[in-house]
Design brief:
InterPro entries: Cyc-maltodext_N (IPR015171), Cyclo-malto-dextrinase_C (IPR019492), GH (IPR017853), GH13_cat_dom (IPR006047), Glyco_hydro_b (IPR013780), Ig-like_fold (IPR013783), Ig_E-set (IPR014756). The protein is α/β, with parallel strands linked by helices and about 625 residues long. It has three domains: about 80 residues, Immunoglobulin-like (Sandwich), CATH 2.60.40; about 375 residues, Alpha-Beta Barrel (TIM Barrel), CATH 3.20.20.80; about 80 residues, Golgi alpha-mannosidase II (Immunoglobulin-like, Sandwich), CATH 2.60.40.1180. The strands form seven sheets. An eight-stranded parallel sheet has the order 18-17-16-15-10-9-20-19. A six-stranded antiparallel sheet has the order 21-22-23-28-25-26. The protein has a four-stranded antiparallel sheet with strand order 1-3-6-5, with helices on one face. Helix 10 packs antiparallel against helix 13.
């Protein structure tokens, strides 16, 4: 997400007492019987909604308290739902003098469909931008009643029309690739106008400017399309990761058009942007003003910063998170801009989700460059004053280490003291800071970064080495869409260059990279490489869930093992530009008793393990046998 401009929002004038009253919204839009937490707080909005006296007459549902706030257009109703309550239509009745307003609110039965299955080290996540992936329903490409009615595939900053219908059609493609989970950038409604970012008018096709958390953007197909997509993904054996945003919303969010209270947002005397500096959050010597600027400053001017210290904001966000899991059936949450959130709030939100859905996996985006700061945002073994309860996080530190090592592959300095695979080794050597490093989500690039192939100089050998590391080391690997077909580019001049349409995702595309026939020989080589390794990983638990043992790189050569009671896999990396013989006596701790091996990637059988022949610029994956 990029920078633009926006004005501070203020409360609208208070209502005159003589006006009529109404209710036009209730959030959550519905709830369910049988939730572990029986309490729910309803946000009720309408003309004078906060001046009404409310009653609820429904068996098993009790109104505990009506909360009035600064803006008389809002009331917050605290309800408790008994375990004996039955599904049905609840009537919220508000009275003011002779006026009576009735609003219906649905209490549903929980369905038995799969949900909150979590993602684990056994999974392989595929990250895609839905607007740029595939268009299956051109009828929902644009709408005249939205603030941004534009559609233009020739403009890299406008919407292109990708949707859930198109994504559903590509589920067999992902299944064939060996993917087990799909993660989309946000699908929530972004009814935002074009924003001026760096002198260019841009659409919020990326999805990070929410305008109504209870609606999937109708350009993606709406709520029904997402429910249908999740069911189809589950039927195909794929899990669904939801991209969540708690830190901010779009500046045209419906609530911001009539703020419940000034403290709904972090307000400043003059506009204040976050510094994007993460150090003040964990620095024991930090000035409080620096910490406040990092956390409470706005991410960009057109994405107002939510005040999660406000209990009404916190309740609203937490209940919406639970609602989305229950309503759509998603399996995991990726949390955007995690480190900019109020961390006690995040702990409370995580705890509420995990209380209802113990298997749900949560991993946040905290883009830092060292393991200490990264560990702060997940369950860790460091004596921080604040202890995070987040189960996982995105492992940017390991990503940076892999990229640094790969960039030195084949160079004269690759065998230096801290060069080449040493970067990778040293990052993993610090895993003791995490309570469970296998819950970290690993990556080589994403929608905010240069594409992986470009980072390694369009070198197919380095590409294969990086994919081998990603799919054989610890953690939950994720792949950015198009990496498997060698999509490339730098963020030059903007990130639109790394968010191009997947070729073949639109009717009439000249090339269809979803099919082998539409790919070049080099693209098929890359696709087949990813598929073979991902499929092997999926089908052999030792490679995704076995223990990891690594050996200090020597002469640039790096060896590690994945092992458990069912087997042992050896990964040996030769980053030099010459074939190398590797004596294996040093690795007897893990190789004792094994006399042969099969090369997972080539199918070649090895009848002797005394010395391994490693091709130049290659990572070899061997399944050991006796």
């Amino acid at each position: 997400m990029k920078k633009s401009c926006f004005l501070l929002l203020l409360l609208l004038p208070l209502l005159a007492g003589a006006q009529s009253v109404s209710i036009d919204r209730v959030n959550p839009t519905n709830w369910w019987v049988g939730m572990k937490n029986p309490n729910v707080q309803l946000l009720v909005h309408g003309l004078g909604a906060g001046t009404l006296t409310y009653t609820v007459n429904y068996p098993g549902v009790k109104l505990l308290k009506t909360n009035a706030v600064e803006n008389p257009n809002y009331a917050f109703l605290d309800l408790t739902i008994s375990p004996t309550a039955k599904p049905g239509t609840v009537r919220l009745v508000g009275k003011k003098g002779p006026q009576t307003v009735t609003q219906t609110w649905e209490l549903r039965a929980r369905d038995k469909s799969p949900k909150a299955q979590g993602v684990t080290a056994a999974d392989f996540i595929y990250l895609a931008m839905p607007d740029r992936f595939a268009n299956g329903d051109p009828s929902n490409d644009k709408f005249a009643d939205l603030r941004d009615p534009n559609l233009d595939r020739a403009n890299p900053f406008f919407r292109h029309g990708g949707d859930l219908a198109g994504a559903a059609q590509r589920l067999p493609y992902l299944k064939d690739l060996g993917v087990t989970a799909i993660w989309f950038t946000p699908l929530i409604e972004n009814n935002q106008p074009l924003t001026n970012e760096g002198g260019t008018m841009r659409a919020s096709y990326h999805g990070y400017g929410f305008t109504d958390q209870y609606n999937i953007d109708k350009r993606f197909g709406g709520n029904a399309a997402y429910v249908d997509y999740v069911k189809k993904a589950h039927a195909a054996g794929l899990k669904v990761v939801q991209d969540a945003v708690y830190n901010h919303v779009g500046n045209t969010h419906w609530i911001l058009q009539d703020l419940p209270m000034k403290s709904w947002l972090h307000q400043w005397p003059t506009y204040t942007n976050t510094t994007y500096r993460y150090q003040p959050i964990t620095d024991p010597h930090a000035a409080q003003s620096d910490r406040k600027n990092t956390l409470d400053g706005w991410f960009v001017p057109f994405l107002p910063d939510l005040n999660q210290g406000n209990p009404y904001v916190a309740n609203y966000l937490i209940e919406n998170a639970i609602w989305q899991v229950e309503y759509f059936g998603v399996d995991a949450y990726r949390i955007d801009t995690y480190m900019y959130n109020d961390q006690p709030f995040m702990n409370r939100c995580n705890a509420a989700l995990l209380a209802e859905y113990p298997r749900l996996h949560i991993f946040g985006e905290s883009m830092v460059n060292n393991v200490v700061d990264q560990a702060h945002y997940t369950r860790n073994n460091i004596n921080f004053p604040f202890k995070s309860n987040q189960p996982g996080t995105i492992d940017f530190v390991l990503e940076y280490a892999m990229l640094a090592g790969l960039k030195e592959v084949g160079t004269p300095g690759v065998t230096g003291w801290d060069n080449g695979p040493q970067h990778f080794y040293q990052a993993l050597a610090q895993d003791g800071v995490y309570q469970d490093p296998t819950k970290l989500v690993t990556l080589l690039d994403n929608h905010d970064q240069n594409r992986f192939l470009s980072e390694v100089g369009d070198d197919l050998d380095k590409y294969k080495m990086g994919l081998t590391w990603l799919l054989t080391t610890r953690g939950i690997p994720s792949l950015y869409y198009g990496t498997e077909i060698l999509m490339k580019n730098f963020k030059d001049p903007t990130d639109a260059e790394v968010r191009k349409d997947f070729p073949g995702g639109w009717p009439g595309d000249k090339e269809d990279k979803f099919t082998a026939a539409g790919r070049s020989a080099r693209e098929n080589e890359a696709f087949d490489f990813v598929k073979k390794l991902a499929t092997y990983r999926r089908d052999h638990p030792v490679l995704h869930s076995g223990k990891l043992m690594q050996y200090l790189p020597e002469n640039g050569l790096y060896v590690y093992f994945r092992y458990d009671a069912t087997g042992t896999v050896l990964v040996a990396t030769n980053p030099t530009d010459k074939p190398t013989a590797l004596p294996t006596g040093r690795f007897s701790e893990r190789m004792a008793g094994f006399t042969k091996a099969k090369n997972v990637l080539t199918g070649e059988s090895l009848s002797s393990l005394a010395t391994l022949q490693l091709p130049a610029k290659t990572a070899v994956v061997l399944e050991l046998g006796k």
